[in-house]
Specification:
A: mainly alpha, two-stranded antiparallel ribbon, elongated, B: four-stranded antiparallel sheet, two-stranded antiparallel sheet, 6 strands, about 55% helix, binds zinc ion
Chain lengths: ~210, ~220
C-alpha cells in the first residue's frame, strides 16, 4: 500500500494515531496555544499550553483544599416551623444507609468527593516532578492511568446542578439557607472544569516517556 | 487548525501494519501486546467489544425498568405520607408551576436514559451493517452518548440532597426509595456499556465500502 508506506516511514516514535478513528499521522508538535486535531474525526490529539503544568499544580492544590473544606462544613440549611437542619456534602452523600442503599451511599460519596479528590492528588503526584524537571515519580505512569480512567466518574458539576434542582423542590416546604461550603463548592466546580481544559494528555505521556535530564 | 492532518487520504494504523495505543496515541508494530509507554493492552480492533456493549446494555435496561416502577422519594409530612416515582415527581413539580425543573428532571431521568439505550443499540448494530449512515453522524452520536450519559446521575444527587436536608423532626422528612438504587445502577451500567464500545469500528464499515470501490 503506497499510502501507508508514505505515512509510516521513519521511526514509530514519530507517529501519532488517533485513538477514536485509528487515523495515522506524522507527528508535528503544535506550538503552545495551538492544537493538533485529527483530520477525520476532529478529536483533539495534542493541545499544549505554556506553563500549563504550573497552573495545573496550583489549581489541583486549590481543589484538594476546597474539597476537604467543602465536604465537612455545612452546605445547605433548611428551617420550617422553628425546626432547622444543616447538612454537609458528606451528609448528603451518605444518606442512603440501609441495606443495599449503603452501596449507593458509598458510590455517591465517591462520585462527588473521593474521585475528584483522588484525581487531583494523582495529578499532583504525576506533574510535580515533571514540572520541576526531575525524573518522574515512581509508578507515575500507573498513577496517570488511574487518574484518566476516573475522569468520567468525577461528577462534581452534576452534583452542583442537582443542588439547584433540590433547592427548587424544597422551596415551598421550608426556607433554605446557604452554608460556607456551598460557595466553596461553587468555586470547586469551576476549578475542576478549568483543570480538565488545561490538561494535554499527550504532553504528559510524552514527558513521562522522555523525562528531561538536568 | 489541522496541524496533523497533512496526508490526503487517511491511512489507518491497521492498514499500515500498526496498532495504536488508544490511551496514549503511541504507535507500535501490529503484533505488540502491551504499550511500552503507558502499559495499556493493545488491540487493533477489540473483537469482544460488541459483546461487552450488549451485555452491559442489557443489565442497564433491566435496572432501568424497576427504577421507574418503584418510588424514588418517600415524603412524610405532619399527617400524610406520600411516595413518588421519577415521572410522578416531575409531574408534581409541573403542577406546582416549576416547569423548568420538571423539564430538567424529565430530560435527565427519562429522555437521556432512553435516548442513550437507543443510541448505543443503534451504534452497535450499525457497525455491523454496510452503507447506511455516514460515519460523521455516527461519530456525533457516539460523542453525545459519551458526554451526556453521566448527567443522568443528577436525579440520584437530588434524592441524596433532599433526604439529607429534609429531616425536620415531626414536621417533614424525606427518605430515598428503592428506585434510587436501581436508577443509579442503570446509569452506571449504561456508562460502562458506552465505554466498552470501540469507536474505531465506526469507520471500518465505510473504509470497507471505499476499499471495495477502489479495488474493482
Ligand atoms: Zn480521528
Ligand atoms: Zn500507551
Amino acid at each position: 500500500m503506497p499510502d501507508a508506506a508514505h505515512v509510516t516511514r521513519g521511526p514509530l516514535e514519530g507517529l501519532i494515531i488517533c485513538p477514536v478513528c485509528d487515523a495515522t499521522y506524522q507527528l508535528q508538535r503544535p506550538k503552545n496555544g495551538e492544537r493538533a486535531v485529527c483530520g477525520r474525526c476532529h478529536h483533539v490529539l495534542i493541545a499544549p499550553r505554556a506553563k500549563a503544568g504550573m497552573q495545573m499544580i496550583a489549581v489541583a492544590i486549590a481543589v484538594v483544599v476546597l474539597t476537604i473544606a467543602a465536604s465537612v462544613f455545612p452546605f445547605l440549611e433548611i428551617s420550617a416551623g422553628g425546626r432547622s437542619n444543616a447538612v454537609s456534602i458528606l451528609d448528603a452523600a451518605l444518606t442512603f444507609t440501609e441495606g443495599p442503599m449503603l452501596v449507593l451511599a458509598l458510590t455517591t460519596a465517591a462520585f462527588i468527593i473521593f474521585v475528584p479528590l483522588l484525581r487531583m492528588l494523582l495529578t499532583l503526584y504525576v506533574l510535580v516532578p515533571v514540572v520541576l524537571d526531575r525524573p518522574p515519580a515512581r509508578h507515575a505512569i500507573r498513577a496517570f492511568r488511574v487518574s484518566e480512567a476516573m475522569r468520567p466518574w468525577s461528577m462534581a458539576e452534576i452534583f452542583a446542578l442537582g443542588c439547584a434542582v433540590a433547592l427548587v423542590k424544597v422551596a415551598d416546604l421550608a426556607s433554605v439557607g446557604f452554608g460556607p461550603a456551598f460557595w466553596m463548592f461553587g468555586v470547586l466546580v469551576v476549578l475542576v472544569l478549568v483543570q480538565d481544559g488545561f490538561l494535554c494528555k499527550w504532553s504528559v505521556w510524552n514527558s513521562l516517556e522522555h523525562p528531561k535530564r538536568r | 487548525m489541522e496541524l496533523v492532518g497533512t496526508s490526503q487520504k487517511t491511512v489507518t494504523a491497521r492498514e499500515a501494519g500498526l496498532v495504536s495505543c488508544t490511551r496514549c496515541t503511541r504507535a507500535w508494530p501490529i503484533e505488540t501486546e502491551i504499550c511500552g509507554r503507558c502499559g495499556a493492552k493493545l488491540v487493533s480492533r477489540d473483537q469482544t467489544s460488541l459483546q461487552r456493549v450488549w451485555a452491559l446494555w442489557l443489565v442497564g435496561i433491566m435496572c432501568y425498568v424497576p427504577s421507574n416502577i418503584y418510588p424514588m422519594l418517600r415524603t412524610e409530612q405532619l399527617f400524610s405520607v406520600s411516595e413518588s416515582t421519577i415521572v410522578g415527581g416531575a409531574v408534581e413539580l409541573a403542577q406546582y408551576g416549576s416547569y423548568g425543573v420538571a423539564g430538567i428532571i424529565l430530560f435527565a431521568s427519562v429522555a437521556i436514559p432512553l435516548g442513550k439505550f437507543w443510541a448505543i443499540a443503534f451504534l452497535a448494530v450499525s457497525v455491523k451493517q454496510k452503507g447506511g449512515f455516514a460515519s460523521q453522524h455516527r461519530l456525533l452520536m457516539y460523542e453525545v452518548v459519551e458526554y451526556i450519559g453521566r448527567w443522568s446521575m443528577i436525579d440520584i444527587f437530588v434524592v441524596a440532597i433532599l433526604s439529607a436536608l429534609v429531616q425536620l423532626q415531626g414536621l417533614a422528612s424525606i427518605t430515598p426509595g428503592p428506585a434510587a438504587f436501581f436508577f443509579a445502577l442503570s446509569v452506571i451500567f449504561t456508562m460502562l456499556s458506552a465505554q466498552a464500545f470501540d469507536p474505531r469500528m465506526i469507520w471500518d464499515v465505510q473504509a470497507d465500502d471505499d476499499g471495495a470501490v477502489v479495488n474493482d
